[in-house]
Design goal:
Elements: H1 7-18, E1 35-39, H2 46-62, E2 66-70, H3 77-84, E3 92-97, H4 98-107, E4 118-126, E5 129-134, H5 142-151, E6 157-160, H6 165-176, E7 185-188, H7 192-200, E8 207-210, E9 221-227, H8 240-244, E10 258-264, H9 265-270, H10 272-287, H11 289-298, H12 306-324
Parallel strand pairs: 1-2, 1-3, 6-7
Antiparallel strand pairs: 3-10, 4-10, 5-8, 5-9
Helix pairs in contact: 1-2, 2-10, 2-11, 4-12
Organism: Pseudooceanicola batsensis (strain ATCC BAA-863 / DSM 15984 / KCTC 12145 / HTCC2597) (Oceanicola batsensis)
Protein name: Tripartite tricarboxylate transporter substrate binding protein
Pfam family, one: TctC
Amino acid sequence: MFLKMGRRAVLGGIAALSMLAAPTVAQESYEPGRLTIVVPFNPGGSADRMARAIAQFLPEELGVPVTVMNRPGGSGALGHTYFLQQPDDGSVALVSPINPYLISNILRGQGMLDWDKFHFINGQWQDYYVILVNKDQPFQTGQELIDFIKENPGEASSAIINGDGGHLATVVMLERLGLPADAVNFISYDGGAPMRTALAGNQVTFSVISALGSSVIAEDVRPLAVIKEQPDERWAAPNINEVLANYDVEIPLLAADLRTFTVHQSFFENHPETYEQLKDAYRRMLEREDFKAFIAEGQIGGQWMGPEATAASLNQSYEVFEQYIDALQ
């Protein structure tokens, strides 16, 4: 069951509390003296909410102020590039859905980006995709939506972040159904928050969007299918390939956003003691009961995967994107 909270209350509370992020428990001195978290999307989106939760609680473990800086643009490319241009001394970190946005940025040649210059401390919030429509739309099932698209090419609109996994999944689905990409009118947004606003306001027909990150608009939308092996009680809808079986086709089940706490690879290599200090403080923060309560209330993920498992998951997603990225060209 979803926790019934107003979107503005949840997002406003996270933003307000993050402003109070001053250290209250002194730890061993963190040499950079501060930490700025770059978020490559607008305020209010899932990555921003996660970053502001970290900024609220990490100072008590790290012993220095933590602030959030939003650098939106180019489906994440501007913020990812900006992050790499910052000092690699541990004073700057990145919170971003590395899968799919950084992966897509690199494979599509957006920004001056190099996969090997990023070091992923932890995949904190793994998501999956769900096909959502506003409750005022007439579609009750995924088959009804697909039939409408087939019979009325170009009339259905879809909210996307250009080049993300939801966009790619939709284009691959159209291709498997024998439809051109322009059978859907894609409307691009620069971040999950404006996409969800468009869905909640019935400004678009549908969206293939991150499921857990969209819990804040649950009262406004209807799920038609999930892109996930097993159904999820959060969104009562069938697997997309069960829907597509009516047309004798299926699509790959692309993994959705893995929102990751990231630093420079050169910071990891050249400042090992400071790196370990940051990693350990961050992990202690994840284990705090007050932090767990805070993210549960805000419906924000808080898992510990660790650097090795996070890198393995992201490298696997990178390989999958490489196979299908040409569908977006």
